[in-house]
Amino acid sequence: MATTQQRTQYQYCFKRHLDINDVQDTLTLAILGAENLHGRSRLRLGGWWRLDRQRRTCLIDASTPVGEDIAKLFTGYLGKEFGETAFSVRRPVQQAKAARR
pLDDT band for position 93 (50/70/90)? Predict the structure, then answer.
C-alpha cells in the first residue's frame, strides 16, 4: 500500500533593497548551524533548500528535523540581520490548500 507524505515547505521572498549575496550568506549560516546540530550525513540526507537569485526567493523543505531546523535558524537570522519587514515567509499555495482539506 502506497502512502503519501505531506511535505512541509516554506517559501521566503526578499525585498529589493536586500543584497541577495547577503541572503545567501545568511542561508549558508543556517545550513552550517543545522549541520552542527545534526551532523554532515544527516544534513545531506535530510536537508533540501533552493535559493532562486533571479526571483529573490528561497524554498526550504521542512518535512524533516534537519529541514525544520534550517528554516527556524534562517528565519531567526533574517529577522535579526535585516529586520522582520525585509522578507516574507509562507507555505506555497498548493501546500496550504492541501492542509485545509
Answer: low
